[in-house]
Amino acid sequence: MDLRPPPPRHHRSRQLSHAQLVAPFVLIAVVTVVDILAPPEVHLGPFLAAAPAMTASFAGPRMTAFVGLVAVLAQVIVSATRTTLTDLNHTFQIIALVMISVFVTFFAHLREVHEKEVVQLRTVAETAQQVVLRPLRDRIGPLGVASVYLAAAAEAQIGGDLYAAARTATGTRLIIGDVRGKGLEAVGDAALVLGAFRASAHQEAGLSGLVDYLEAAVSADLDGGDEGESFVTAAVLEIPDDEPVLRLISCGHPPPLVLLRDGGTVGLDVARSAPPLGLAGLVAGAVAAQTFAFGPGDVLLLYTDGVLEARDRAGTFYPLAERVAAWTGMRPQALLDHLCEDLLAHAAGNRLDDDAAMVAVERPAGP
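RESULT FIELD:
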């Protein structure tokens, strides 16, 4: 399994930080010099308050306090140079500048504490998710397999995307899904679904029975309050070893794609989709598995809606089916590498709004 965050942008951030850190001191210097040279009736001291205020928007409390101290000293220098240090107006300007500096320093402290909490929570969620999402082997039975997980933007909460595979006596079963919600709760719900899949994939004779088992597990234990508020979209598949087909039950999940060996793609749109896991009680009737061709050399692409929802700066969604149509003939890992690079290039600033999981499965072309 490949867990990838968006490409790092630390170098650019450091350059921007240097420019930001210089700006308050430049402002203080300019205001001080101009105020000293200005006529006596002109007072530019209030502009010094902008220096600690702007620093608090990007720097920590120590840097903000230091800039505030420099601004206060600059105001004192101006007053001393003008021999108005004891003037009531300048005295109140100095007091006001001290109060503003203290206030924005406290604001910077609160922001820094919040940012540390967000980073800590995300680290815990990512660690939990890596434990839940066990790596898929690059070969499962006769099938070649690759998987990837793209984390969303740094400020976004981690999602509940999931996938797993299990061998049976006659073939391979797979699931890919997306839990509604974000954060640790979504990761916990994903763990529930994956645990139910791993426990039952070897035992249930038919794909419909497996989906029924997953539905029962989700309905009984899925976190959430009101009915219909918590659910999991999923695609559950079975790939027999000795037949050039695959069987699919879609539970409200985006349709998988098959990249044909001879070129072109086929979307696996089912005639009837089952409701998302956790919502079957709202819909009457069971849904049977649908069979699709999956021959030697074909590659199956499973994905979550984070792929489809990636948008460029113009707001255009990622055209997955159109893009992969030109990438037939690639092995699973090469396909996902190419897809990830293209997806991040499409997304505005290499930022995804939602986590994206993808699994590629190839039926070997020959012995």
